[in-house]
Design brief:
This protein has 136 residues and is mostly beta strands. The protein folds into three domains: 31 residues, no CATH class; 55 residues, Hormone Receptor, Insulin-like Growth Factor Receptor 1, Chain A domain 2 (Ribbon), CATH 2.10.220.10; 30 residues, no CATH class. 0% of the residues lie in helices and 49% in strands. β11 and β12 form a beta hairpin.
Length: 136
């Protein structure tokens, strides 16, 4: 028997309980829909994974995706936490400038590993106009 996702096994080798993102079906753990953190079966989410929200329409059995760059939202247009590389502007996420991983609307405070921070902007380490790899 396949024991992927199983957290508790009987002496006979069947699952009694499953990890998050799995549900129990006839002694085996099966995957929830990709949008579900917990579910009752493959068609009904109980809680949503990061980047998804519970749809307000009662006909939704799966979670709905947050907008681009959003980690935590209550609807497709109302974000409260953004992914790395984005900042919260009102209730939506806006991309930081190129190579920037942490920013506000005007200031970058952290760059990706291939870049260097110079005067609140990120430049590639290979950018010869900014002294190449200085600071990388």
């Amino acid at each position: 028997m396949n024991l992927v996702g199983c957290t508790k096994i009987t002496n006979q080798g069947s699952c009694l309980s499953c990890a998050s993102q799995y549900y129990l079906s006839q002694g085996a753990c099966l995957s929830c829909h990709v949008s579900c953190q917990t579910c009752t079966d493959s068609s009904l989410c109980l809680t949503c994974r990061s980047g998804y929200f519970t749809g307000s329409n009662i006909n939704y059995s799966h979670c709905q995706a947050c907008s681009l760059g959003c980690t935590t939202c209550t609807s497709a247009s109302s974000c409260s936490v953004c992914n790395s590389g984005f900042y919260l502007a009102g209730s939506s996420c806006t991309a930081c400038s190129s190579y920037c991983t942490t920013c506000t609307s005007t200031v970058c405070s952290a760059c990706n590993s291939l870049s260097v921070l110079i005067t609140n902007l990120c430049y590639l380490c290979t950018d010869v106009s900014k002294q190449g790899s200085i600071g990388c």
